[in-house]
Structures are given as C-alpha cells and as structure tokens.
Known about the structure:
- This protein is mostly helical.
- It has 29 helices and two strands.
- The longest helix has 30 residues, at about 510-535.
Amino acid sequence: MLASAGYRYLKSSRRVLSLLECQCLTMSHIKQIQSHLTVSGTLFDPFAAGRIISFCAVSAHGDLSHAYLLFLALPRRTTFIWNTLLRAFADKNKSAAVLSLYKHMVGTGFLPNNYTFSFLLQACTQLSDLSFGILLHSQAVRLGWEAYDFVQNGLIHLYASCNCMDSARRLFDGSLNRDVITWTAVINGFAKTGQVEVARQLFDEMPEKNVVSWSAMITGYAQIGFFKEALQLFNDMQIAGFRPNHGAIVGALTACASLGALDQGRWIHAYADRNHMELDRTLGTALIDMYAKCGCVETACRVFDEMSDRDVFAFTSLISGLANHGQTATAIEMFARMQKEGVRPNVVTFICLLSACSRVGLVEEGLRIFESMTNIYGIQPVVQHYGCLVDLLGRAGLLEDAKRVVREMPLEPDSYVLGALLNACRVHGDVELGEETVECLAERSLDHGGVHVLLSNIYASANQWEGVAKVRKGMGEKKVKKVPGCSLIEVDGVVFEFVAGDMSHVFMDDILLFLLGIDKHLKSLQLEDDDNDDMKLE
C-alpha cells in the first residue's frame, strides 16, 4: 500500500517536473511546482531540486535569490547544482560571489569539473584576479582538466586580460581548438601591451575574423599611436564586408582626432547616425575630441549638448578643446556647468583649466582653480599641475613666484616643469635663471636638444653671442640633435605628413612653388596695408 502510494507520488512528481520544459513559466508557476514537490516529499531529491534551481537561476523569468535560498536549504547537493549557481552568478557579473561560492564548494568536499573552471575563470577575468586564476590553473592541471576546451580558452582569456602574454601565448600555441573569441582575446592582449606587430601577425593569420577581432586590432593601433594604420584597417574592414561596431567607430575617431582627419571623422559621424548608434558617453566623447582637435569647436559643443548622459570625460574633452582654441572664458563657464550638474572633475580636468588660464594670463583665476583641487575636491596636484602653475606665473612675468613654486613643490620637478620655467626665461630675457634651469635639467639627464636650442635663443635675445656659440659647440660635442618638427594635412580624405627638412615628397617642387606664390601674395597685401596707413597719415 505504502509502496503503491510512493510510486504514485514519484510518477506525479515526474509529470510536474516535465512542466519545467514549458517556455512560458513564471516564478508564480515555479512556486506552485515547488509546493507540489514539497508535499510529495521529492523536493530535496537532487534531480528535482536541480531542475527547480536551474530554472530560477538561469531562466530569463527566474529569480536567482530564490534559487540561492533553496540551494542553502538542500541537505544534499550535486556538482550540477553547484555549477548551475556558479554559472548564474558569473552571467550576472557577480564575480566576487562566484569565487566565494567556489570556496564554499571545495570546503564541503566537492571537486570542480571542466564546466566549473569555465565559470571560475570567467569571474577571475572580470575581476582581473590573476593570483586566484593561477591557483585555479594549478588545480586544473592537478585534476586533469587543463586540456579541455572550456578550461584552456578560459585560461587564455584570463592571462591575456591580465597582460600575461607569455603564458597566454604558450597556452594558445598548444591549443587544438581555438575559436574566433580566443584568437581575438590574444590579439587584444598583445595590442594592449604595445606588441602591435605580434598582434597584427596573429590577426593576419586568423582563419576566420569577426567584427570584434577587427575592432580589437583598430583599437590597438589607436591606443599606441599608429593612427594611419588604424584608419587604413578601418577602411579594410568595410571592404571585407564587415559593418563597424561601436569599438571600431571609437578607435577610428581617436585616430582621426590625432591626425586632424576631419573629412573622415565627419564620414564616421554620419555613419554612426545612419546606423542609429546610441550617442553614449564613449562615442560622444570621441566625437567631441575629434571635432575639437580638428578645429570645429562649435560642432563639438553641439555634440556635447546632444548627449543625454555626460560624464567627466565628456566635460574634460570639451574644456580641453575650448582652451586649446583660445575660448578660455567658455572653458571656465563649462567647468561651472560641470559643477552645477554634479559631475566631479578629475586630474586631467584641472590640467586643461590651468592651461587655459595660462594662455590668456588669468593668474588669479588659475591660482583659485589650483587651490580648489585640494581644498574642495581633495585631489592632490601631480607634476603636470605644477608645470601648468609654473607656466601660468612665468608667462605673466612672475618669474620669482614661478621659481619659488619649483623650489617648494613636494614632487621632483620634471622636464615639463623646468621646461615651462625655461620658456618663461626666454620670453622675459632672464639669462641667469635660464642657465640655472638648464643646469637642473642636465643634472636630471633631461637636457634634450630642445632645451639647448631654448638656451641658445635666450642668449641670442640678450645679444650674448659667445653664449650662443658655446651652446652650439656643446651640442656638437655631445652629438645632441633637435628632433625635427612635423605637420599633417588632409587632402581628399588622405593624411599627409611633412617633416622639417625632408624634401622627399613626390610633389615637393610643386609645393615649394605654391608656397612661394602664397608668400609673395601675403607680402603684397602687407605692402598695400602699409600704403593705406601712409595715406591716412597724410
């Protein structure tokens, strides 16, 4: 009789569990099923409990907290149940909970399997917890799970994201089943660590590329200053039939900003609009930076106003653009707006503001901003801030105050700080302080070619030609060379670079002829202005 009743309950419970296959279940339905299993006495059966926990933890209509409470009440658990919860916490980016749950799992005598390691390594990657990841690697080796695809790919991702490229490459080379995600992770890792040649070699060897791998390579080029290569690859990506994603767009805009490639930047902006890309913080800031660096400050302001969510990077980028184009008052107004909107400035914001004040001689405003860093925002000035302060005081002719800042600053002055002081000496003809500053630079092995040229110019301004000859002789003896300047120009969407003294361009004769014509035209306009002034005097 009892055996017959138990069989009916078991059969009924199996029918109830089969309802979990239905795609339209809600938590209300799950709780009803759980109640039935409780009454039938089969809820704590590992199979039944595992099915309920799996739905609650993984399903889009589930409730992870409910799954966890049921998990805690279970007298018996299985590796499947542990893995289900680990997966759920990992998918919801609760990485610390994943590692904590794993420690509990091992403490109760359960050993991980290959699926367990995939969730654990995902959590370590999200936390950049290399030390725990190495511990997991050793456990995987000891338990014989290292060679499994899930584990090997997880380890490669972990080491690549933590910039341990030797370990990542060793595992990658030994892997027999490398998918496009693993290829991309290794390429991204090499690009992030500046090994862009290795990254590009791997990128070219990829048997199959996707939009993320293209984006990773473009971003890698942009991050280390290979801007031409970034734009070329961006074009190649579209020729290959891939639609640029958010990351590729941002990387290409970064390259356009640094190259001054306004036409390409505008095309990319139009592409983003056509494809209804969200103007989020990252894309908006990239557009602001590009337009500001290409001289289109009004367009940069318009993009800024179109952003629904503006952070410190968007504000700082626009403040920098305004300051670089002489709109200091507007830059300071933007800082006030930033404060009003509750956005906290960072160290770069203050560098931009101090530079803006320095350019137009707003000494009192600059000093107020400098003091507010510590007094209001609790930000300790770094060397760049002191360099801006020295430049601010030096440009205004307050050389003694600038010298006192250098002497009393709590940090070791670098080439930026001493260079600002040296430049002030050149502007105001202070030969003695200039010589002293160059000595300080030489003591720190920071006396590059530009420093000697500045000192030479200081002597020349003071008609001290013996000093000029001495500096130039010293440069010759030390084989010091000034790094030549360069300029960039965009023509029909192509960026051309011209280096001072380099006459190798294929159209150099035509360029020189055209420049000569411009020079004559400007001189003729100057003569006309002089004649007009003479006529007015008469």
